[in-house]
Amino acid sequence: MKNNIIIDKMSIDDLDSIKSVLQDEFDDFWNYNVFKEELKNENSYYIIAKLEDNIVGFGGIWKAVDDVHITNIVVKKNFRKLGIGNVILEHLIKIGRNIKNMKSITLEVNDKNLPAINLYLKSGFKKVGLRKNYYGLDENAIIMTLDLNNK
Ligand SMILES: CC(C)(COP(=O)(O)OP(=O)(O)OC[C@H]1O[C@@H](n2cnc3c(N)ncnc32)[C@H](O)[C@@H]1OP(=O)(O)O)[C@@H](O)C(=O)NCCC(=O)NCCS
């Protein structure tokens, strides 16, 4: 399964092809329009994971001064727990390492989102902070970082 995953840069056409299932099958973090703007942002880079021509996941980064921020990683509901999230994350880390002068990769994750927290821990991210009520009342964000100087 994992070995059959193909990673590609996400295009507007790719986003349009999953528009109708974004909410139900991918957990809609952002609405379509915000996502579309992100694809035009020169500091952002989004990738898709394809399995036999079907988009089964995506993820993206946003480049700040010396830090790469992971904006989201989502795997299609029926394809979770198969290693696809890990493939997407490792690819984003590789992209981050290849951008000049980047010192770290950072992200925020809901402190109740154990699958995501475990996914990031497995790739070497460390919990470095907590933002209380970041996602709403009693919805805290854990800040996690991967130090790119420690290769
Ligand atoms: C988080 C998410 C991307 C993981 O994708 P996935 O393809 O299911 O993850 P993988 O199969 O590659 O799993 C990699 C590791 O993540 C952790 N993990 C994944 N699913 C998990 C679960 N349900 N419970 C606990 N740990 C889990 C495990 O450590 C796993 O390693 P292991 O298989 O060796 O135990 C997926 O659950 C998802 O899309 N969730 C909704 C969107 C989301 O919350 N994204 C993160 C936003 S910051």
Poorly predicted runs of 5 or more residues = none
Count of discrete domains: 1
Task: Kindly report the name of the CATH homologous superfamily.
Answer: Gcn5-related N-acetyltransferase (GNAT)
Bound molecules: coenzyme A
User: pLDDT average, as an integer?
Assistant: 94
Indicate the CATH architecture.
Answer: 3-Layer(aba) Sandwich
CATH top level? Alpha Beta
Rounded to an integer, what's the Rg over CA atoms? 15 Å
Number of helices: 5
In short:
The chain has 151 residues and is of the alpha+beta class. It is 30% helix and 38% strand. The chain has five helices and seven strands.
Describe this structure in words.
It is globular, with a radius of gyration of 15 Å. The two termini are 28 Å apart. The protein is an alpha+beta fold and 151 residues long. It is 30% helix and 38% strand. A 7-stranded mixed beta sheet has the order 1-2-3-4-5-7-6, with helices on both faces. It has helices at 12-18, 22-26, 32-40, 84-98, 114-122, and strands at residues 6-9, 44-51, 54-63, 67-75, 104-110, 126-136, 139-147. Helix 4 links the parallel strand 4 and strand 5. The longest helix is centred in the middle third of the chain and has 15 residues, at 84-98. It has one domain (2-147): Aminopeptidase, CATH 3.40.630.30. Bound molecules: coenzyme A (COA). Coenzyme A is lined by residues 27, 72-75, 80-86, 107, 109, 113-116, 118-119, 122.
